Each structure stands twice: as structure tokens, then as C-alpha cells.
Amino acid sequence: MIVFRLGKTQFNNDLIGIGAKLYGGRWNNTGTACLYTSESRALALLEYTVNVSISDIPRGLSFIAIQIPDTNSTELEIKDLPRNWTEFPAPSSTKNFGTKLLTLAKTPIIKIPSTIIHQEYNYMLNPEHPDSKSFKIIGIEDFVYDVRIKL
């Protein structure tokens, strides 16, 4: 399976989840590594867009395609998530829930509904899981952000 990330070009080769570890995210607390990926480039763009202000969009962005196993994942449904999982900003309940999943999961991949389009999925990759060695970057494409998306 191929999943996608959109991020700063300077971090193209990051498979250790340093950004999420340093700053946290919707599904992880600071100090817990995670790679946030999406099932399509379009969803990756939407996820990026809702999490960045127009003044913070860098000139150098890239889509990163990552090959992950089709198996060895944990799949979550909306009924499995905290009641307030879609709130903005991300509540501590989602950060704690995701951190616990990442820490205790028996699998390196967690498939989770998108807060933007609940019928589509993001994939949280756990770079600290022993089976994360199977994650492989298979493509990097420069991307020019069209600011009309934020207008």
C-alpha cells in the first residue's frame, strides 16, 4: 500500500517522525514519534491545509509517497474514538488516546478516520515500532501550494 505526506521539502526523508515528536499533533503528545500520512495526495493536502496558516506555508513543499505493508495494521472506526475527536484545536483526549495507541500497539500502522472527511482515512505510522523497518519512501515530488485553497 502507498500512503502520502505533504511537508516541508527539507524534511523529505524523515521516517522517524521528528516533527510530531517535537510538537505533538492531533493523535500524539509531544515526545511521542509519529508519521501522519493519508490514503491520497488530496487528503494529505486537505490535512496539511487545515493545520497551517497561510502566512506559514513554506515555498518548498513536497509530496512523499511511502510504501507500507498491506497487513500489520490496527484499523479504528469512529465508534472507537474519543467523543470529541473532531474538535479544533485537538483536545487532550485525542492526544492521550493516540499516544497510548502508539505506545501499546502491536502493529506499526494505525488506520484512523479523517476529521475532515470521515469516510476517508489517515494512517499514523509508528517509527519506533520494531516492524517500522518495512516503511520505505518510494517517491518525492515537489509541490507548489496554490494559496487559493486558503482564500
In short:
The protein is of the alpha+beta class and 151 residues long. It contains 3 helices and 7 strands.
Q: Could you explain the architecture of this structure?
A:
With 151 residues, the chain is α+β, with helices and mostly antiparallel strands. The protein has one domain. Helices cover 19% and strands 26% of the residues. It is built from 3 helices and 7 strands, in the order E-H-E-H-E-E-H-E-E-E. It has helices spanning 18-23, 41-50, 92-104; strands spanning 2-8, 35-38, 61-67, 73-75, 109-113, 121-125, 136-143.
Largest sheet descriptor:
4 strands, mixed
Shape: globular
Average residue-wise pLDDT: 96
Task: Compute the separation of the termini in Å.
Answer: 33 Å
**What is the strand arrangement across the widest sheet?**
2-6-5-4
H and E order? EHEHEEHEEE
Rg (CA only): 14 Å
Going by helix content, strand content and strand pairing, the class is alpha+beta
Q: Which spans have pLDDT < 50 for at least 5 consecutive residues?
A: none
Number of strands: 7
Which secondary structure elements does this structure contain, and how are they paired or packed?
Blueprint: E1 2-8, H1 18-23, E2 35-38, H2 41-50, E3 61-67, E4 73-75, H3 92-104, E5 109-113, E6 121-125, E7 136-143
